[in-house]
Write a structure and sequence with these properties.
Number of strands: 13
CATH topology of the largest domain: Chorismate lyase
Structural class: alpha+beta
CATH class of the largest domain: Alpha Beta
CATH superfamily of the largest domain: Chorismate lyase-like
Radius of gyration: 22 Å
Number of helices: 9
Shape: elongated
Helix content: 25-40%
Number of domains: 2
Oligomer: single chain
Strand order of the largest sheet: 7-8-9-12-11-10
Distance between the termini: 39 Å
Length: 261
């Protein structure tokens, strides 16, 4: 087992010098992959923050005791994932961490906060509207009946990651915009005595429209992950219908598959 770390060799990479990488040269896992996984974990947990500089390949290879091709391959894999960027005359820089979210009945706000992603929210819309056919069917109300619609932009480290649209029965909850910008919707539901029990959810993908791309800081036509969810409380009552958009470059769903017996 080889551990690398120690004092910084260059002022451009103070954050990296504080990390302790454990690289096992006897492992069948290639060294570049070990390094890439540990760098990715450091980015995800905030040890390497957006804007941190890692230095150039020569500095990194000397600091970590690895060959330049090994370091280059590790960096390339994270550049391809959108976590790092190479800047001419500067070196390799952390861009952002990719959000990995469990496919479960949980709040995006709570998941991001638990992962140290520093979530913030901008409420774009909070008003009562007539329910469309889809919304009415999901919430069990009459088509054209009044429901509350929320549109929120969710950000991490000051960068947008998701555009959330939720429909709720009007009498369900006091949906104050200031509170919505300070916490998550599901947290507000729990505080209001609503116990979430289950949900039906569909995940898909499509290309971003110009308006969506502008809001999410993507290019028009960029890949977006979509999620449609109807959540129910412990009495079986539908309490929320959501249609959400996530930047595919910054977001993934994680879930476990079990073999049938």
């Amino acid at each position: 087992m080889v551990r690398t770390g120690g004092p910084a060799r260059a002022a451009t990479a103070p954050a990296l010098s504080t990390l302790d990488f454990a690289l096992d040269r006897r492992s069948p896992v290639p060294l570049y992959h070990q390094l890439a996984r540990q760098l990715e974990a450091a980015i995800e947990h905030g040890a390497l923050a957006p804007g941190n500089l890692l230095g150039n390949e020569v500095d990194l290879s000397v600091r970590l005791g690895l060959s330049r091709p090994t370091v280059r391959q590790a960096i390339r894999s994270l550049v391809d994932k959108g976590l790092l960027v190479r800047r001419r005359g500067v070196g390799t820089q952390v861009v952002h961490s990719q959000v990995r979210r469990p496919l479960a009945l949980s709040s995006l706000y709570d998941d991001l906060e638990a992962a140290g992603q520093g979530p913030t929210t901008q409420v774009v819309r909070n008003e009562e509207v007539a329910a469309s056919a889809d919304v009415a069917a999901a919430l069990g109300v009459a088509e054209g009946g009044v429901v509350t619609v929320l549109e929120r932009l969710r950000l991490t480290h000051g960068r947008p990651v998701a555009l959330l649209c939720n429909y709720l029965p009007t009498a369900l909850l006091d949906l104050d915009s200031a509170r919505l910008e300070a916490t998550g919707l599901y947290r507000m539901m729990r505080a209001g005595g609503i116990t979430l029990h289950s949900a039906r959810q569909t995940v898909g993908a499509r290309s971003a429209t110009r308006e969506e791309a502008d809001r999410l800081e993507e290019k028009e036509g960029a890949a977006l992950l979509t999620m449609r969810r109807t959540a129910y409380d412990d009495t079986g009552r539908p309490v929320e219908y959501g249609t959400h958009l996530y930047r595919a470059s910054r977001y993934t769903f994680d879930f476990q598959l079990l073999a049938r017996s």
